[in-house]
Amino acid sequence: MATRIRKNVWTLPANDETLIWYERAVEALWDRDLEDPTSWFFMGAVHGQPQNFPDIPGSGQFWNQCQHQSWFFLPWHRGYITAFEAVVGKAVADLGGPQDWALPYWDYSQPLSENPNARRLPVAFREPTKSDGTRNFLFSRRRVVVNGDFGFPDDVVSLDALDHEDFTNDTPGFSSGFGGPQTGFHPGGGDNGALESTPHNDIHVWIGGSGGFMANPATAAFDPIFWLHHCNIDRLWEVWRNADPSHVSPPSPLWRTGQTFSMHDGDGAAFTFNSEEMLDSTSVLHGFQYDGVPPAVEPAIPAEEFVMAGKEPELAGASEAPVKLRGAMTTAGVKLDTSVALISGAEAPGTTRRVHLHLEGIKGRGMPGSYRVMLDLPDDALPPAIIGTLSPFGLEQASNPDGPHGGNGLAVTYEITKLAFALGLSQGDANRLQIRFQRMFDDSEAFGQVPGLEQIAPTEQQPDIEIGRINLYFD
C-alpha cells in the first residue's frame, strides 16, 4: 500500500471528503464495545482514563500510557496517532471509503496573511448536528466560541520551539530542549520540552478552557480535534528535523530502544514499538508523510559521542515563598543575588550569559486555563514584557501525591536573555524582578455537551494553582 499523505485541513479542496469519512468512522467506533481495542472509548483511554470510567480486564497495559514532560513525548504520540489513523482508516474502508484515508493536520501557526482562517476550528467540528439534523460525531465538549474562533494570540501559536538546537537538555533550570527531558516511562510531571509547551499545551488549554475535554490529559483524546492537533505537533517534529543537520534525535540507547510501548493496529492486533522505530515515518505501520515536508533523514551519531547540552547553571535569584495565582492578575517578586554577575571579567568584553526564568512545583486542582507571563521593566513608561504563557495541561495529574511522581507538580522555563539589558541584569543595576501572571480566561465560559460522555465531564470546582518557586538562572 502506498504511503499515506497527511494534508493541511484548511487546504483540502471544497469537494474533499476526508472529514466526511472521518465523522462516519468515528460514529462506527462509538458503536463498538468498550472491550474492543479499536473502539472510540478504548482508544481514548490509551491516552488517559477519565473519572468514572470503567476498568476492563487487561487494560492496564494499554490505558493511561501518554508520555508527557519527557523525551518520549514525540515518539510515543507518533505511534499513538498512527495507530488511531490505522483504526479509522480501516473503518473508512469498511464503510466503502478510500483505502488510503489519512488524518489531516490543523496548522494553526500558518501566517494569517496566507490563510485568515488558520486559527479557527475547522467547520466540520463546530456544530452538534449536521445539516440533515443528525448527530455530528466530530463535535465535542469545548469552549463555546463564535465561528470557531478561540482567539489564539500570536504567543499561543508561536513556533519559537523550532529554534532550539538540542532535542533534549538536562541542565537544571534551563529549557529541556526541543523534545523534552530525559526520563523513563513518564505519564507527566516536571519540565516540558519546548514544542510540548508551545504550541502543544497552549492549544490544548485554549480549546478546552476550564471545563472542556482537551484541557485535561485524562479526557483530551475523546475530542476528535485532538488527533488533528497532534498530527500538527508530529509534523513540526519533521519540520525541525529537516531544518538543520544538527537537529537530531538522541542517539542514546535509552531513548532509541530502552523503552517499549504497546498499542493496537487497525485490525485490533497488539503491537509494540520503541522510539527508534518512529524515526522513519514511511515505515510506521502503513507509512505516512506530510504534504510539503519530506521524511527526515538524520545523520548517524554514535551514542558514545552524544553529550547532553548545557552545564551547571548559576542561581541568581529566587522567590521567597510559593505564589498563588488568584483572580485576573497576580504579581510575584524574585529577589536577586547581587553577588552573581551576568557578565564576568573572565568572559570576553560584551559577552552575555544566557538567562532563564524557571517556574517549578506548579501544583493545583481544576482547570484554570492559560496565563500570560510578563516581566515588569524598570522604565515605568514601558509596558510589561511578555515572555510566554503558562498552560497547566496535566496540572491535576502532576499534583497528585499518590501519582507516579509523588505530586511534584509541573515546571516551565522561559529564556529571557534578550531582556537582560532592559531589566538591568547586564549592568548589575537590578536587585529584584517582578513577574505578572495574567489569566487569559474568565469564569463565564460555556461548554458543549456530548451525549454518552456526560460521566467523564470534569467535576465543577474552583480552580486553584500555586507555583512553588520562581528561579532566575544564568548559564
TrEMBL record:
<dbReference type="InterPro" id="IPR002227">
    <property type="entry name" value="Tyrosinase_Cu-bd"/>
</dbReference>
<dbReference type="Pfam" id="PF25271">
    <property type="entry name" value="DUF7868"/>
</dbReference>
<keyword id="KW-0186">Copper</keyword>
<dbReference type="GO" id="GO:0016491">
    <property type="term" value="F:oxidoreductase activity"/>
</dbReference>
<feature type="region of interest" description="Disordered">
    <location>
        <begin position="174"/>
        <end position="197"/>
    </location>
</feature>
<dbReference type="GO" id="GO:0046872">
    <property type="term" value="F:metal ion binding"/>
</dbReference>
<dbReference type="InterPro" id="IPR050316">
    <property type="entry name" value="Tyrosinase/Hemocyanin"/>
</dbReference>
<keyword id="KW-0479">Metal-binding</keyword>
<dbReference type="Pfam" id="PF00264">
    <property type="entry name" value="Tyrosinase"/>
</dbReference>
<feature type="compositionally biased region" description="Gly residues">
    <location>
        <begin position="176"/>
        <end position="192"/>
    </location>
</feature>
<dbReference type="InterPro" id="IPR057190">
    <property type="entry name" value="DUF7868"/>
</dbReference>
<feature type="domain" description="Tyrosinase copper-binding">
    <location>
        <begin position="223"/>
        <end position="234"/>
    </location>
</feature>
<protein>
    <submittedName>
        <fullName>Tyrosinase</fullName>
    </submittedName>
</protein>
<dbReference type="InterPro" id="IPR008922">
    <property type="entry name" value="Di-copper_centre_dom_sf"/>
</dbReference>
